[in-house]
Amino acid sequence: MYTSGKYSSRGPALIPRMKTKHRIYYITLFSVVLLGLIATGMFQFWPHSIESTADWTLDKRSVHDAPLIRLPVSSPIPERGDLSCRMHTCFDVYRCGYNPKNRIKVYIYPLQRFVDELGVPISSTGLSREYNDLLSAISDSDFYTDDITRACLFIPSIDVLNQNSLRIRETAQALAMLPRWDKGMNHLLFNMLPGGPPDYNTALDVPRDRALLAGGGFSTWTYRQGYDVSIPVYSPLSADVEQPEKQPGPRRYFILSSQTAIHREYRAELERLKEENGEALLLLDKCSNLSQGAASARKRCYKGQVYDYPQILQESSFCVVLRGARLGQAALSDVLQAGCVPVILADSYILPFSEVLDWKRASVVIPEEKLSEMYTILKSIPHRQVEEMQRQAHWFWEAYFSSMKAIGLTTLQIINDRIYPYAARTYEQWNNPPVVKWSSVNSPLFLPLIPPRAPGFTAVVLTYDRVESLFRVITEISKVPSLAKLLVVWNNQNKSPPEESLWPKIGVPLKVVRTKENKLSNRFFPYDEIETEAVLAIDDDIIMLTSDELQFGYEVWREFPDRLVGYPGRLHLWDHEMGKWKYESEWTNEVSMVLTGAAFYHKYFNYLYTYKMPGDIKNWVDAHMNCEDIAMNFLVANITGKAPIKVTPRKKFKCPECTAIDGLSLDQTHMVERATHLQVPTLTASPRVLLGEDELMVGLQQEFMCCFKLVSHERGTELRQQIF
Fold it and tell me: Which residues cross the membrane (predicted)?
């Protein structure tokens, strides 16, 4: 008890003594840590910016307050633009460096007034409102930096938008005096109205060394592909005139021409078309009975009748955009704003932002020599495609043409994508309006090496009226272990699908989708019901494939998710004697495509088929009820540069039980049409105008007919064949 009491009397006394000794130390340490955390949090989350937030506007930097710079007569003059310049030869990407945001930094030179030795300015207009708006938008963007040492791209405050207002020699001397000019390396100039009388060159005449040019009237002769940026000619009416958005659809006039300075030969041809087609074509000109001024610029006349411009553009399905003295025309912007499909007749013209925008979706480009055939060409475009083009045209204007801000930031984004290609915007992000959602669909080109086994595949069965055969197909497919869902596309609008109680009872979800039109392209529509990456497209009469053969095909697809993996193979090759493509369905060891009557593929290709593939290919397929599988083969091969894979079943892929007289493939014209579909130059001779120069089917022999794999189901080996 004594020992315990002694310990108790001393133990409690030692503990407080210990706290007192170290209390100051612990309190000091805790205070330092706490203050450090608070300071770190304030630095991270308190609103601040490393860079200056000074705006580049006339309000803060008046032209009259800008310092005056005199140009000696002997000032150096840059060399004329180097046509051989490319990003890897005339642009120093190392100035851009790496940054976590993958965004270039742009520096705008301070505003200065350049005059010659006599005090005459280099420009008759100084800084235009449009160029000020452009520089202000850039200074407000995430691209801007006021630290010249951090800049990747330099933009002069010298306004060269309109060459007519410039003194060429003196402007070039002013550029050469910029502190970081270095022969124009990493400098960007904006010009919308190049050239001058009498030649009207298609690029800025100001000598500019290696500077990049964002130009509004490039031709194929002056445009340095992958270096310069083709921009639109801004229309001031975009800001001055508000037009209510008009929904796509038929309009009062079929074709409208509203430009006033058309060459007399073109106007004579348009008048001849007007005589032939009457009220379908409205041919407007400037109003001679109105006094010149801002008001008359917004009026157009035809035989004394006055029309408001640009409002009249909304009353036409197609609007003619002809070249004038310059290739680039502000009328293109007005037409797009009105949701009118532009019909562009300007040979060699580089369309605005054509590096990223797919103009085939929003316009019709016709060679000038085919102006007389314009009405016939436009009449051949289906109404549904015209509506899609009207919608796309207005969206192009809204996203990329509507303001100097939109034009400037789009230009910088294109350059940014060149410098950071791994973070560049995709085709879909540039060209698809927000209503088309691709965010939930991944491209198979960037998937993991082998997609996971768990999700399985969705079987899509296209059917019309063969219920008994359909039910047999459903029953057999339901036995495949990896089947996740079965989707039946009911393509018969005149007959309802069977009652729910009559359908086979299977262990996976079974969905039936009723289509509005009987079209073969319905089998490749990106239905919301398709939730798996893998899709099995199968016809309603393919009853000879067993469940283990289908499972094996799915396993092969998992190793090659960016390819078509199918069972029935076909061959197409060039017949030198006949001078045309030949389509073979005989049973040989040579394979160049697999039919989608029984094939696995990634659902991403449904989106490409529906939204990216040129519309007239789908229209041909739906009109002839044939060749949708050929179109899909060509699409996948052109996108991936890879051949399809054929999976051989245990027995020959024939259908002795398929005796239905209404089968599409039993029609005597079936094989003839499929061979005809391969004759690309013949099929798309005039629609070449609609497709542009890079049709999906060009270069088949190079991209499509090489190194085809034949995967044997029975032997489990791969046989590679070189067809050509």
Answer: 24-46
**What is the β-pairing status of strands 106-108 and 253-257?**
unpaired
- If DSSP codes are grouped into helix, strand and coil, which group holds residue 121? strand
How buried is 480 (Cβ within 10 angstroms: 0-12 exposed, 13-18 middle, 19+ buried)? buried
What is the full DSSP assignment across 323-348? --SSS--THHHHHHHTTPEEEEE-TT
What are the beta bridge partners of residue 351? none
Please give the structure tokens belonging to residue 176.
């050469």
pTM value is: 0.60
d(CA 512, CA 463): 10
CA distance 413 to 410: 5
Amino acid identity for residue 289 in this structure: N
For 628-648, give one letter per residue: b (16+ CB within 10 A) or e. bbbbbbbbbbbbbebbbbbbb
pLDDT along the chain (724 residues), means of 10: 41 46 71 73 44 42 78 93 92 89 94 92 91 96 94 96 94 95 96 90 94 95 96 87 86 94 92 93 88 75 90 95 92 95 96 96 95 95 93 95 96 96 90 66 61 80 91 94 94 91 92 91 91 92 89 92 88 78 70 88 91 80 85 88 83 47 47 49 28 32 31 32 26
CA–CA separation, 390 vs 315, rounded Å?
Answer: 12
Helix axes 547-559, 467-477, angle to 10 degrees: 60
Beta strands in 453-579 (DSSP E): 457-463, 483-490, 510-514, 534-539, 565-566, 569-575
Residues 6+ positions from 610 with CB-CB distance below 8 Å: 521, 524, 525, 526
User: What Rg value do the Cα atoms of the chain yield, rounded?
Assistant: 33
| Tokens at 651, concatenated | 């027995």
- Tell me whether residue 64 is exposed, middle or buried, using C-beta atoms within 10 angstroms of its C-beta: 0 to 12, 13 to 18, 19 or more: exposed
Q: Which of the 8 DSSP states describes residue 193?
A: B
CA–CA separation, 508 and 409 (whole Å): 49
